[in-house]
Specification:
The protein is α+β, with helices and mostly antiparallel strands. It is built from 1 helix and 4 strands. The protein starts with a strand and ends in an 8-residue tail after the last helix.
């Protein structure tokens, strides 16, 4: 299989993320945070049937995980 990579840039809760999505099987794409020089990819990958679906799964998780807590009154 040829290596096909789609790149997405997302701003989630004020932070910029670079997402890479690559084909892993005929109808399966894997999304993960792009590696930065000197950094690592510690986040688990997310999968979808299309590049957009895989990137959306990861973006949604990042939104939930890095959301700002609601102040308690």
């Amino acid at each position: 299989m040829p290596l096909t990579v789609h790149r997405f840039e997302e701003t989630i809760n004020g932070r910029e993320y670079h997402i890479e999505v690559s084909l892993v099987d005929r109808d399966q794409w894997r999304a993960q945070i792009a590696r930065v020089p000197g950094g690592s990819r510690a986040l688990m990958p997310f999968y979808g049937r299309t590049p957009d679906e895989a990137a959306h799964q990861l973006s949604r998780w990042l939104s939930l995980a890095h959301g700002r807590p609601i102040p308690q009154v």
